[in-house]
Design goal:
Blueprint: H1 2-13, H2 15-38, E1 41-63, E2 76-78, E3 83-84, E4 90-98, E5 105-119, E6 122-138, E7 142-150, H3 151-165, E8 170-182, E9 187-198, E10 202-205, E11 210-225, H4 229-255, H5 258-269, E12 274-276, E13 286-289, H6 293-303, E14 307-310, E15 315-319, E16 323-328, H7 331-338
Parallel strand pairs: 12-14, 13-16
Antiparallel strand pairs: 1-2, 1-4, 1-11, 3-10, 4-7, 5-6, 5-8, 8-9, 9-10, 14-15, 15-16
Helix pairs in contact: 1-5, 2-4
Length: about 350
């Protein structure tokens, strides 16, 4: 309650300033609500236009040239996880590139077989053999180039260089794909690589050889957004609430007794020194009027006595051996109590 009393006292003592501030803030909120309502916001957004996608991949396949228990002669094996030298000693690699089909696109394709020698993870030898190297123009959205690799010969070459270094290092094979494209709007490149594993009996691509790229052109555009009802409505409600608070503040000032509020605040601050009770008059004692309750509490503290509060007449008193120090808001009631 102490806080409430302090607020009421502050409003009562500064009534005009508080009412003026509330009215001013209310007017500003209503003006802000009108401004938000009449002023739509403009936002800049970036849109990606003229999207074009470019894809490149290598499609492996092998023709069975020798009949085995697994395959029939003449069978075409495509995208297998492993191929066997006994059945298919050669591997066909088809490089396919897909581009937009609504315009001519220049496509340069290069596929290489890399031999890399390493020791302790560090390279000491590198050579490349170009398998496919073409310059084409795609008019229907697709270009292709094909090359067949004699894997048996590659294995023999690998065995020769491995024998040369013995256990000093290891050799690995890798396929490298590089595709450059040029359209009317875009120019770029696609790259991919995959290990090419060859053993005494089999070979395979350890992964896929494919890459994709999507090109687009960013375009800025202005978007006008209507005002948000939550924004201007909230400001208007706050403004009306402030007007209502201003009216309530005026009414509070009409009903508030500042001296009573100050007394109540002191009562709350020194409640540990104040006890409720009734005290009779005593004509043999001297009655001393104290101007404020706070001063009366000081008297109680100095005399090491308590303040007695009689709520029926709203009076406070400190009773000493020969004096009664008292404080009362209503002088008439105090006079009746003292019988004077």
């Amino acid at each position: 309650m102490a806080f409430e009393h302090r607020v009421k006292l502050f409003i009562s003592e500064n009534n005009r300033a508080v009412v003026a501030a509330l009215l001013l803030c209310g007017v500003l909120c209503l003006l802000a609500a009108g401004y938000v309502f009449s002023t739509p916001t403009t936002q800049t957004v970036v849109e990606q236009t003229d999207r074009q996608t470019f894809d490149a991949e290598v499609h492996p396949s092998a023709l069975v040239t020798r009949p085995t228990a697994l395959y029939e002669q003449g069978e075409r094996l495509e995208n297998r996880s492993v191929y066997f030298l006994s059945a298919s000693p050669s591997l066909t690699l088809q490089a396919n590139t897909s581009v937009p089909d609504d315009e001519p696109v220049a496509v340069d394709t290069q596929l290489q077989l890399e031999t890399l020698g390493t020791r302790n993870g560090q390279p000491f030898y590198r050579s490349t053999r170009t398998l496919i190297e073409t310059e084409q123009t795609a008019s229907d959205g697709r270009v292709s180039a094909t090359e067949t690799v004699n894997v048996s010969a590659v294995r023999q070459e690998l065995a020769v260089v491995q024998e040369e270094v013995q256990d000093t290092g290891q050799f690995r094979l890798r396929l490298l794909l590089d595709v450059a494209y040029r359209s009317e709007a875009y120019e770029g490149s696609l790259s991919a690589s995959a290990p090419f594993v060859v053993s005494d009996q089999s070979y395979y691509l350890d992964g896929t050889l494919e890459a994709t790229e999507t090109e687009s052109t960013p375009v800025e555009r202005q978007i006008t957004q209507p005002p948000s009802p939550a924004e201007y409505g909230g400001l208007a409600v706050i403004g009306l609430l402030l007007f209502g608070l201003a009216a309530a503040t005026v009414r509070i000032d009409d009903r508030v007794d500042t001296e009573e509020l100050r007394t109540q605040i002191v009562h709350d601050q020194h409640a540990e020194w104040i006890s409720r009770g009734q005290f009779p008059t005593d004509s043999q004692k001297q009655y001393i009027s104290i101007l404020t309750l706070e001063d009366l509490v000081d008297v109680a503290i100095d005399t090491n006595r308590r303040v007695i509060h009689d709520p029926q007449i709203d009076a406070y008193a400190v009773i000493d051996s020969t004096e009664i120090y008292y404080y009362a808001l209503a002088d008439v009631q105090a006079d009746e109590w003292l019988d004077i």
